[in-house]
Amino acid sequence: MQTRLLGNTNIAITPIIFGTWQAGKKGWVGIDDDTVIEAMRAALDAGITTFDTAEIYGDGYSEELVGKALGGVRDRIVLATKVFPNHLKAEQVLEACENSLRRLQTDVIDLYQIHWPAGAFKSGVVPIGETMGALNQLKEQGKIRAIGVSNFSRSQLEDAAQYGRIDSLQPPYSLFWRGVEADLLPYCVATNLIVLAYASLAQGLLTGKFDPNHQFPPEDIRSKNKLFQTPLYEKAQAALAQLRPIAERYHTSLGNLALAWLIAQPQTTAIVGARNAEQARENAKAADIQLSLDDLQGMDTISRTVTDAVDTNPVMWNFGVNHHDADT
Predict the structure, then answer these.
(1) pLDDT tens digits, 291-302
(2) Residues acting as catalytic residues
(3) Whole-structure pTM value
(4) Is the pLDDT of residue 328 over 60?
(5) SS3 sequence, the chain?
(6) What domains are defined for the chain?
């Protein structure tokens, strides 16, 4: 699989990145540890060398599984993880990093990201300069190789960049969720930041496997996803029907068609989760699809039948005012 450089670093990452939110189990149902470990190893065998996790995913459990699955092949992979907004004071950042290093069974984290801005999910407000100071210290110590941010607005990203080099942005971005294109993507292109798109399959919606009447149990995070609720869900189903003939022309799945579109966007890579080895191997195939300009434009038009109806709130989920444990 061809690689791309992570921002202004010499770190080579794959355009398809293995996402491990599901490995933490919290917010997901039907996840088996051994099967997820097999999926990570299958992804590596299929050419995916970049793995993204976070301390909040299952309160460290996802990082532990990543360490267990990949600790023995550390020299072949790129590890990205994130610090949650309740750990953004300087001493908390340093401690959180040490904990992540231990769980991941590694001496260095390739990309360490601020998961959400300070203040999110009722966390305390910490000056970004303080957090960045700690991240710069970790970088100088060789414990992290690059700094990234996730779920930041353009102004928050610009503020952070005043205190140190930012090499990546991790936003929600997919064929059905394109708010990043308004002002964040142009900034990333201008400053050579790489975009690590999460929810790149709209939490499975873009695979086309959910019928019009599908209902998720309340404990499944997707029950709160705006795209799975009226009227967006109906619009998405209609758009998928228009995308199917394009996927058939490329002899690929709807999901891989959507991933191919995403990684064809400027500076953009796609984080994709997998529950099992078969899914991981299938996801890797998306990197080989070369969409024609006509099809990219056609998919853009179909996409907008959904995204034009999305509100301006960048958060994809209706968490509610009392939600404390968001895991994205």
Answers:
(1) 999 999 999 999
(2) 57
(3) 0.94
(4) no
(5) CCCEECCCCCCEECCEEEECCHHHCCCCCCCCHHHHHHHHHHHHHCCCCEEECCCCCCCCHHHHHHHHHHHHHHHHCEEEEEECHHHCCHHHHHHHHHHHHHHHCCCCEEEEEECCCCCHHHCCCCCHHHHHHHHHHHHHCCCEEEEEEECCCHHHHHHHHCCCCCCEEECECECCECHHHCCHHHHHHHHCCEEEEECCCHHHHHHCCCCCCCCCCCCCHHHHEHHHCCCHHHHHHHHHHHHHHHHHHCCCCHHHHHHHHHHCCCCEEEEEECCCHHHHHHHHHHHHCCCCHHHHHHHHHHHHHHHCCCCCCCCCECCCCCCCCCCC
(6) 4-307 (3.20.20.100)
